[in-house]
Write a structure and sequence with these properties.
The protein contains four helices and two strands. It is mainly α. Strand 1 and strand 2 form a beta hairpin.
Length: about 160
């Protein structure tokens, strides 16, 4: 039996906010592109966890979620809304993996022995990379990916 209020009509159900889905999807697409770009740069400069490519994988999941958010704001069907909710749940799980990987990379960066990009090499006699600014660049990109993953956690939960 349907619940009714005093006037005899059906109770108000919550409506799907189209503008919110469009804004959320657009911001997820923006941060997904940042994560994928920074993940590619991390592979080039060989950060401590570059072989995992977590920013690229999480960025691709966020990209799909953002595209579903934008499409669901234009075509408001039950299937698109449910798929957006499912992908948002997967985005939350991927965010935890991205945060853990970025935090681990920040912690291990001091002992990183990967030579880096072309022209750099690791000197085992003094235990240091011979590439100006490589260590700072690695820390910066790891910290940026950690920050972007935390922002994406907030967007995925929203």
């Amino acid at each position: 039996m349907d619940p009714t209020n005093e006037s005899g009509s059906r109770s108000n159900q919550k409506k799907y906010v189209v503008g919110g889905a469009r804004g959320l999807g657009g911001s997820q697409i923006f941060f997904a592109s940042l994560l994928v770009t920074f993940g590619i740069v991390e592979i080039v400069i060989q950060t401590a966890e570059f072989f995992v490519a977590a920013p690229i994988w999480t960025g691709l999941v966020y990209l799909v979620t953002g595209i579903l958010g934008v499409v669901s704001s234009h075509r408001n069907t039950k299937c698109l809304v449910i798929s957006l909710l499912v992908m948002s749940c997967l985005s939350v799980l991927m965010t935890f993996a991205g945060i853990a990987t970025a935090a681990s990379a920040l912690g291990k960066e001091h002992w990183n022995e990967f030579p880096g990009s072309v022209g750099c090499y690791y000197d085992y006699t003094i235990h240091d990379n011979h590439c100006p600014g490589l260590q700072h660049a690695r820390f910066t990109f790891d910290a940026a990916n950690l920050l972007f993953a935390m922002v994406e956690l907030g967007l995925s939960i929203a």
